[in-house]
Amino acid sequence: MEERARQRAERRNKRESYFDYSLLFIIIFLLCFGLVMIYSASSYEAQTEIGNAFYYVKKQLLATIMGLVAMFFVTKLDYHIWYRFSVFAYVLSGILIVLVLTPLGIEANGARRWLNLGLSLQPAEVAKLGSILFFSFMVCRMGKKVHKIQATILLLALASPIVLMILLITKNLSSAIIVLGIVCLMIFVATPYYKRYFVLVAIAVIAAVGLVYLLVSGIIPEEASFRFGRIIAWLHPEDYPDTTGFQTLQALYAIGSGGVLGKGLGASMQKLGFLPEAQNDMIFSIICEELGLFGAVAVILLFLLMIWRFMVVANNAPDLYGALIVVGVMAHIAIQVVLNIAVVTNSIPNTGISLPFISYGGSSVMFLLIEMGMVLSVSRRIKLDHT
């Protein structure tokens, strides 16, 4: 008996904490690459309009540094501390979205989506993080009840207010889709009964195809079809070269002219006043133009590696709450990357959405890094057994 007790004690001593340095390296590499590409994509516009070629990259660098500090601080915390603040985070998200309607709201490029709180803040980014925390909390509280269809309906109903506020108040369809996608994927992972989700996806696909058919066939009256202008432009961008199809066409020109190896870093032509939002939503097209198919595939592979590391951490998380946090972050990154690349390549209708860690956007990179801190915090609680 004493020998067995000694062996158990030795095994406990051999157990070491784990830290995902591979994920940390991918994060830092993407951040550095993003700063290089932001400078390349924005320097011409910044110089001609502001008089400082480094204007955008300086602002992004400041947000990145602040985000890294926050990430390392969050990494050191026990992630269970967020369990207590999950409901508060969700409610705060809603309050911040409503504040966009007040004098604190900032309008830019025809959209009112930001708050002036000393620093510019986009409430939709807070909502993504708040939704990850809140629905991780809710699924854990429900326990085995989450397997019931009633629980799925309840969780989707709880997600609806934030999704609708993002859509109706900030007019930000892409962020509303991402928040809803995060919630759906977390429910999907937490529930072993997948048939109901395949049915819902099938219904959504049929509805989308039906809408496109009605638009193409002209069954939807002309006086109503203006509401779906982006879908029409997506189907035939060449018919709207000066209006809704302009940005899409310029992005496709950039992708096509890059070829396999690209024109070379900094050699893009489309960023010279032709492609709107080159450093924001359309930065992937500049990557394709300057670094070619090789650069585009390399970026996609990096994101795939990041998602793989998320899966490793989630599968080995000490408890369900930690696993769900990681799944929520994974859903956020995966959905946003897929939507951004799909928009740039005209695979789906154009909707403003940034490429994580690479596109210009202070709020986005800061909250993404806070999410990365949470994932790394979960990874630190994984124990390795060397027996």
What does it look like?
This protein has 387 residues and is mostly helical. The protein is 67% helix and 4% strand. Strand 2 (105-108) and strand 3 (111-116) form a beta hairpin. Helix 2 runs antiparallel to helix 12 (283-315). The chain starts with a helix and ends with a strand. The mean pLDDT is 85.
Please tag this protein with its features.
two-stranded antiparallel ribbon, three-stranded antiparallel sheet, mainly alpha, 387 residues, 3 domains
Give a quick summary of the entry.
The chain has 387 residues and is mainly α. The protein has helices at residues 2-14, 21-49, 55-76, 86-99, 123-142, 149-169, 173-190, 195-217, 222-225, 229-235, 246-258, 283-315, 320-344, 362-380; strands at residues 16-17, 105-108, 111-116, 120-121, 383-384. The strands form two sheets. A three-stranded antiparallel beta sheet has the order 2-3-4. A two-stranded antiparallel ribbon has the order 1-5.
For the sheet with most strands, the description reads:
3 strands, antiparallel
**Spans where pLDDT lies below 50 across 5 or more residues:** none
Order of secondary-structure elements: HEHHHEEEHHHHHHHHHHE
Instruction: Please state the structural category.
Output: mainly alpha
Which strand order do you get reading across the main beta sheet? 2-3-4
User: β content, as a range?
Assistant: under 5%
The helical percent reads: 55-70%
Question: How many angstroms separate the termini?
Answer: 19 Å
Task: Please tell me the total number of domains.
Answer: 3
What characteristic shape results from the CA principal axes? globular
The count of strands amounts to: 5
Give the radius of gyration: 22 Å
Number of helices: 14
pLDDT average, as an integer?
85
